[in-house]
Amino acid sequence: MTVRTPHTPPFRDPRLPFAKRIDDLLARLTLDEKVSFLHQFAPAVERLGIAAFRTGQEALHGVAWMGPATVFPQAVGLGATWNDELVHRIGEAVSKEARAMRARDERVGLNVWAPTVNLLRHPLWGRNEEGYSEDPKLTSAIATAYTRGLRGDHPVYWRTAPVLKHWLAHNNETRRDTTSSSVRPRVLHEYDLRAFRDAVRAGAVAGVMPAYNLVNGRPNHVSPHLREHLRTWTDQDLLVCSDAGAPSNLVDSEHYFATHEEATAAALLAGVDSFTDHGTDPAKTVARLRAALDQGLLTEADIDTAVRRQLSVRFRLGEFDPEQDPYAAATGGFDTPEHRALAREAAEQAVVLLKNDGLLPLAPGTRIAVVGLLADECKLDWYSGSLLHRSTPLEGLYERFGAERVDFAEGVDRVRLRTGSGAWLHVPPAEEADERVRGAEGALDPALLAGRTDLPPLTTGPTGTELALIDWGDGVLTLRAPDGRYLSVADDGYVRASADQPGGWVVQETFRLEPHGQPHENRHLLRHIGTGRHVCVAADGVKVAGEDGPGPEVFELVVAERGEEAVARAAAGADVVLVVAGNDPHIGGRETEDRTTLRLPGHQERLLSAARAANPNTALVLVSAYPYAVDPAPLRAMLWTAHGGQAAGTALARVLAGDVSPAGRLPQTWYADDSDLPGLLDYDIIGSRQTYLYFEGTPLFPFGHGLSYASFAYDGLTARADGGTVRVSCTVTNTGDVTADEVVQLYLRTVNPSVPRPRRELAAHRRVTLAPGGSLEAVFDVPLSAFAFWDVAQGRRRVEPGPCELLVGASSEDIRLRTTLILDGEPAAPRPVRERGLEAAGFDEQSGIDIVDRTRTAGDAVTAATGRTGELVYRSCDFGEGVREVTAELSGAGVAEISLDGGPALAVLTPAPATPTSDPYEYTTVRAGFTADGVHDVRLKLRGPLRLARVGFSG
């Protein structure tokens, strides 16, 4: 028990509530000290004995960036487990390792920036690996489990303080800091907000991080939704941490504000509490905040509000109560046997069996050829820690089946490069080179890690070095020396065989061969993608060309062996061929770079074709951060797993051998072709029929799909409404011969909706383990609120009366049982437009429309997309006994036409001609005669750069 002495200030007294202690501490801090706290790296206040603090420790699937740590499967792989309990245990393990690592290295933070709850709306998004699912219910369930594990179970103190990323509607890397996601109210409330809302309401979230993009024309870092929605979901103080560099983007790239002082003040007032900008140097952020105060843009009370939220997190983390904090002495939870076993269990549970015609599990004694570019790889991504343990598919198969029964062919093209003078590119021996691994030493910002310069640059000579060439797609190549090191370019511009793997914020290990001259001449320039420069040969070594010195070298590519030749040889002598294909998480689909196609890269397609041609008993194992479109018809089996972390190879081998029955399920739709996809920047999942919720085509594999080595029967579906909950139950029986997991999935479908509703929508799920012949009753309690949708006419959620189907099965398309429930909801009502008018963004349907910001601080307006005529439909508008006039709040130049029920235009509204310097936020009210009575559909057409905020009716 702590006894307060006369010299103990109240903020140090653990007997007082946190709120009173924070009040006391705020009163003791000077204004300058409080301002300094608002940068990511808050300095110490030595006169009060307060330590330095930083927000932000990456921990997406293990502690990242701070050196070796347990590496679990990627987040999309954790989503594929559909196992909340497992993910909760992983969160616990990650937070224990964070505490243990911090005990050794104070740079390790406890305010963890994880998980990512952006929905996997579009499979070409470069950061697909970071999210859990395309479905908001599954995403929030997995995120809640992870954050509860990260938080710990003490009622007062938190083991770590998780921050959800990235608020809001963020699914594109292409121009991510300047593009605006056009999000209609139904999509906002039913989809994008939902994943955040449910996790925050669960009570284990310390804050959020806004995303780089804009939503409806307004940067997320000044989003009114932070105040209007996020902070209403919990009574706890939430810490909003900016994304790196985003505060400066408000001026520098987005040009949303004229000065950094205005931008910083606006972000703080919107709800940003910690500014991640300019690395570890707080000087610019502090100067901007001080200037904003001096200019009257901020008050000290505004500063206090943000500092209070940060202090709330620090108190919860036990910083001021080391004797009471139950986690303060928890320093031994690092790389424990339990964590290693958990990493393997997670990797096993993440494997999804997509197709199997009896090839799997592999019979004892099977002779296996394992081939492909990922067959002997254990890839990490940008948000991984360094590996403590490593298991590749090849190593796992060696361990499980014996090396004598496993043949291997990587499938690289083996090449040499000859210069125009006839000399060959040569990798000199690296005498006594250490085995340094990128990032093993830990770094607060791994983007700043420099390439190695302690190894000799490449040279040219009479004998060349045979290099392993891999084409990762779109002509992006890596070249690897015989010692396993990749060609890379360091800051001094020289090309060396120096990297253990491709990686880094700007990857320095990728190249592109550019044809030079006539096609038959086999002459190429070699461009280094990281610097954008061509490779040249200088007297002191091979380097990238600069403004001075030799010009680009012209190379002849001499192929010693194609990868498919080696694959065919290995495949021909095997009983079964396993082609391991996929992606390198640092290349061709990653943060800052979206993919361009669902297709497997051409190099890997060639390897797969060669394996199939040599041996019909071919299975494809996809190890990737995202879906591919690969025809499964010629294959006997097909599996997918995300990059599975340190135990990936062992886990995969155990699944292939049948030691574990696969039970992963797809967390997102796998589309059959690029033509099935909407535009990457089309965020209207309702209008463009995106995700399993609305997609009307035939997917390659549906959401929730995954096969097993067992079979399961479903029976006895019942549903009973009781108060505000519907209890749904059924019996699931293992009718197979092996113990296996099944994922029972419950979906809802409104039978006769008044507006477009999902084809089916996940309401609950449960992963269960059953022995052969075993049965279990799966029970789900579904709140009636799960049946609601956002009624744009009423501006709130509404449960529609009438029949709703309850569907239970093994995937969104494999429905085994169904029943119908009659809901006592609230009938639809027409829009009372005479009294309330129409908010422009509250449409039912649209075409050619972008939603934009009504003002810089709040509200939405609409405008026609560039080069298009925008059309809007508002259903069932009630004009009562009649109106005679229409008004429209407009800005800019253009024309708005209004009609009823698809008829001719009844009114044309045009604002006064706008000058080139007119403020787009200055609206004028334009009036026109308009006669209507009764209930009609209102249609609006917009032409030109015109903003429409609202339409009113009178008379």
Topology:
Elements: H1 18-28, H2 31-36, E1 41-42, E2 53-54, E3 57-58, E4 68-69, H3 75-81, H4 84-104, E5 112-116, H5 136-151, E6 163-167, E7 180-181, H6 185-201, E8 207-210, E9 214-215, E10 218-219, H7 225-228, E11 239-240, H8 246-252, H9 260-270, H10 283-294, H11 300-316, H12 337-349, E12 352-356, E13 368-371, E14 386-387, H13 393-401, E15 406-409, E16 413-418, E17 424-426, E18 459-461, E19 467-471, E20 477-480, E21 486-489, E22 495-499, E23 511-515, E24 523-528, E25 533-538, E26 541-544, E27 554-561, H14 563-572, E28 576-582, H15 602-614, E29 618-623, E30 637-641, H16 648-657, H17 691-694, E31 712-722, E32 725-734, E33 740-750, E34 761-770, E35 775-783, E36 788-791, E37 796-799, E38 802-809, E39 815-823, H18 833-836, E40 838-839, E41 845-847, E42 849-853, E43 860-864, E44 870-878, E45 883-892, E46 895-900, E47 905-909, E48 924-932, E49 935-943, E50 946-954
Parallel strand pairs: 3-5, 4-14, 5-6, 6-8, 7-9, 8-11, 13-15, 13-28, 28-29, 29-30
Antiparallel strand pairs: 1-2, 9-10, 12-30, 16-19, 16-27, 17-18, 19-20, 21-22, 23-24, 24-25, 24-27, 25-26, 31-32, 32-35, 33-34, 33-38, 36-37, 38-39, 40-50, 41-44, 42-43, 44-49, 45-48, 45-50, 46-47, 46-49
Helix pairs in contact: 1-11, 4-5, 4-12, 5-6, 8-9, 9-10, 12-16, 13-16, 14-15
Explain this structure.
With 955 residues, this protein is α+β, with helices and mostly antiparallel strands. 20% of the residues lie in helices and 28% in strands. The chain contains 18 helices and 50 strands. The model has no long low-confidence stretch (mean pLDDT 96).
